[in-house]
Amino acid sequence: MNADEEREFREFVAARSKSLLHTAYLLTGDWEQGRDLLQTALASTARRWSKLRDRQQPETYVRRAIYHAQVDRFRLLSWGRETVTDTLPEQPSGQVGGGDWADTVVQRQDIMAALRRLPKRQRAVIVLRYFEDQPDAEIAAILGVAQGTVRSQTHKALATLRSALAEAGPSATSSSTVSGRGVIA
């Protein structure tokens, strides 16, 4: 990578890291794993930066690298040993700041737990569509699938999320909804 390419790459990272980290977090459900995932994807992108055909759309390449790195991590045995639980190890003794804030936190936890239980591709489709506001064509390009697959995976994921949030009870659905148009919290 020459000096101009390195400058372009650094500018891209500075401009888009926050958004890409948010995507990685939503795919993993953990900020530290999300940071690791993003670093892996950016390292891969840096190695191939000079060979990217379309320098105007490097974000698509990085998002694809994030998705594939996430899939690869789940295939490793060391990542499969962790168990996600529905209860936090430490519960606060009282509600600080009123019930509204606590309800919001519980709702977000319920939504994140339901999102983590989705299969990897369905989770990726939901994250890219509703959290990153990507169109079907862009999602299909990132994941390397047909647009019809994106739509069917979205339909299945939303049905699963609706069911999971209904089981979580009124705290998860009182002010958050999962509809065919988006996840609103």
Structure description:
The protein has 185 residues and is mainly alpha-helical. The protein is built from 9 helices and 2 strands. It has helices at residues 3-28, 31-48, 58-75, 77-80, 99-117, 120-131, 136-143, 147-168, 170-173; strands spanning 177-178, 183-184. The protein has a two-stranded antiparallel sheet. A hairpin with a 4-residue loop joins β1 (177-178) and β2 (183-184). α1 (3-28) runs antiparallel to α2, α1 (3-28) crosses α3 and α7 packs across α8 (147-168). The longest helix has 26 residues, at 3-28. The protein is globular and about 55 Å long. The model is unreliable at 93-98 and 172-185 (pLDDT under 50).
User: Could you tell me the mean pLDDT?
Assistant: 80
Instruction: Tally the beta strands.
Output: 2
Assembly of the depicted chains: single chain
In terms of DSSP E residues, the strand content is under 5%
Q: Based on Cα principal axes, name the global outline.
A: globular
Uncertain runs are 93-98, 172-185
Distance between the termini: 43 Å
Order of helices and strands: HHHHHHHHHEE
Helix content: over 70%
Radius of gyration: 18 Å
Strand order of the largest sheet: 1-2
**Which class do the helix and strand fractions yield?**
mainly alpha
List the total number of helices. 9
Largest sheet: 2 strands, antiparallel
Topology summary:
Elements: H1 3-28, H2 31-48, H3 58-75, H4 77-80, H5 99-117, H6 120-131, H7 136-143, H8 147-168, H9 170-173, E1 177-178, E2 183-184
Antiparallel strand pairs: 1-2
Helix pairs in contact: 1-2, 1-3, 2-3, 3-7, 5-8, 6-8, 7-8
Question: What's this, in brief?
Answer:
This protein has 185 residues and is mainly alpha-helical. The chain is built from 9 helices and 2 strands; from the N terminus they run H-H-H-H-H-H-H-H-H-E-E.
